[in-house]
Amino acid sequence: MTEVSNSTPLLFTVSGLRGIVGQSFFPSTVTEYASAFGTWCKSGRVVLARDTRASGEMLKMAVSSALLSAGCEVIDIGITPTPTVGLAVTDLKAKGGITVTASHNPIQWNALKFFNHNGRYLSSAEIEAIRRLVEKKNFKYKDSSGLGSIRVDNSQIKKHIAKILKLKLVLVEKIKRTGLKVAIDACNGAGFQAAPELLRALGCRIVEVSCDNTGTFPRGPEPVAKNLKELENKVKKTRADIGFALDPDADRLAIISEMGRAIGEEYTLALAVDYVLSRKPGKVVVNLSTSRMVEEIARRHGCRIEKTKVGEANVSLKLEQVKGLIGGEGNGGVILPELHYTRDGLLAMALILSYMAESGETITSLIAEIPKYYIVKQVLTVEGNWESKLGNLKSRFAGARATTLDGVRFDFTDSWLHLRQSNTEPVVRIIAEAKSRQAASALVRQALRTLKTS
Ligand code: MG
């Protein structure tokens, strides 16, 4: 295997295989993992997709070649949102799926995300099985008479949208009657066609921002407030009722209010949960880094909430175990098991628009009803022994209730602090939430001081 330096890592976690193209991510890298996946899928049918990144086609061809060599029947569904891939796997009764996307990572990165035959991300155990095959180079290659086949299927985005429109929770006729004006920023990513298409089907008047397949991202790809200035201005200028911002693989969604203000990606799940629980009661599942707003909303509706390790696969698994109604992550990822177990930006748009149409309220007035918390997030490269740093943190915050399910989370009376190693980048993520921004920032500062001095 190609030698990889620490500054350009190759990561293989429950979030998939990620690296920097030309530094730690080569055709040879993805070929090995795709060969392992094809072997693991027992040469069955595999769905293949990608996002719009310029490196996508090159990597997709390498993946495709490996799958064909393993004897797989490859169904190429083109440039599609990540959630579409999960649905396509079940629709096509495939053994698995691979999409070439590094999601919210910068354009230099790319990644493979793997799905199992249920259209879900691979579990940690399934990821380990693939890792073992790669390590032993235990690939079952076919001879020239047993090679796989490839065909193109361009119908999957339409099918995905049709499934969203069929949900009882999505009030298609009401949204159409309301005639909402919606500005949509797809970051020129995988939702560039699918998002406007869904909004058209819902009868919205659409203002498009970065809905082109250019292979480049015009803004920072994470749908966080600092990256959404253009959309904020567009909402103001066109007097839109709402702005939606997707990440490049369209599984995360952020909202801009009618005042032209990015309200923070934490509100996407909060609003979706508030809406869904107002229609019917059920259990909610979130990860440990998700805003307490969601907890309070669930409590108001008399519903239970469960928390998991960070990582979509962990939330999905728990949703299945507890037969949850809705769940997701505070980063703008909404999962509705009735549709599927994948975070889905298109679904989130349809739920939020249903909430607006049903209530007749603006985004500003809907969020005014949600208990207010301030969340502060920081990313840090940590040198040295992470385990011993965790020990120091535990002594520093000895007065708080500590949970060590994923890194460490400290719960105080009306605030919390969570520190964990990222699944997608070689960094530590620090998140604090409190009743004021100052209090949340103070918690982050205290954590940083402890990490730096230990
Ligand atoms: Mg994503």
Task: Describe, in plain words, how this protein is organized in 3D.
The structure is a single chain. The chain is an alpha/beta fold. It has 3 domains: 11-154, Alpha-D-Glucose-1,6-Bisphosphate, subunit A, domain 3 (Alpha-D-Glucose-1,6-Bisphosphate, Chain A, domain 3), CATH 3.40.120; 159-368, Alpha-D-Glucose-1,6-Bisphosphate, subunit A, domain 3 (Alpha-D-Glucose-1,6-Bisphosphate, Chain A, domain 3); 374-453, Alpha-D-phosphohexomutase, C-terminal domain (TATA-Binding Protein). It is 37% helix and 22% strand. The chain has helices at 27-40, 56-69, 82-91, 124-135, 156-166, 172-178, 194-201, 229-238, 266-279, 292-300, 312-321, 345-359, 363-368, 386-396, 437-453, and strands at 11-13, 16-20, 45-50, 73-79, 96-100, 109-115, 149-152, 181-185, 205-209, 242-246, 253-256, 284-287, 305-308, 326-329, 333-335, 374-380, 401-403, 408-411, 416-421, 428-434. The strands form 4 sheets. A 7-stranded mixed beta sheet has the order 1-2-6-5-3-4-7, sandwiched between helices. Strands 16-20-19-18-17 form a 5-stranded antiparallel beta sheet, covered by helices on one side. A 4-stranded mixed beta sheet has the order 9-8-10-11, sandwiched between helices. Helix 5 (156-166) runs parallel beside helix 7. The model is unreliable at 1-6 (pLDDT under 50). The structure holds magnesium ion. Magnesium ion binds at residues 103-104, 247, 249, 251-252.
